Amino acid sequence: MTFAPSDFPGDRLGYPKEGPGSVARLGRRVGALFIDYGAAYLISGFFAWDALAIFAIFAAIQIVFLPTLQGSPGHRIVGLRLQRLDGGWVGLWKPVIRTVLLILVIPAVIWDADQRGLHDKAVGTVLVRR
């Protein structure tokens, strides 16, 4: 089986090149990550300043908001949403697995040609522009 080279991220998956529904690019992804991690850091200041508390709060933010709002607060602020490849609701268990892999970092920084990290590929999701 051979694959034709894609012209842009999301081309092979049937997503548009740009605009709503296009695959999220690095700048927006990193911006959302900083917003969510910053929120976790600020919230942890009310309880404890250790790294474990920050990661636990970050994970809670992801796990609560991904299935309910189709994205974390950071995703929503920068104009992104998380969806299954077929466009459906991500469900309840996929955000848990995706978050664990995101916290491990390595799966999140290994991408395919469609700019989907291993954490998204593992659960069959894609981060797109709203």
Automatic annotation (TrEMBL):
Chief location category: membrane
Keyword Cytoplasm: no
UniProt subcellular location: Cell membrane
Residues passing through the membrane, by range: 46-69, 90-111
Coiled coil segments of this chain: none
Keywords from the named record: Cell membrane, Membrane, Transmembrane, Transmembrane helix
Membrane association type: Multi-pass membrane protein
GO cellular component: plasma membrane
Domain RDD positions: 47-123
Family annotation (PANTHER family): PROLINE-RICH ANTIGEN HOMOLOG, PROLINE-RICH ANTIGEN HOMOLOG-RELATED
Record's protein name: RDD family protein
Organism name: Microbacterium hatanonis
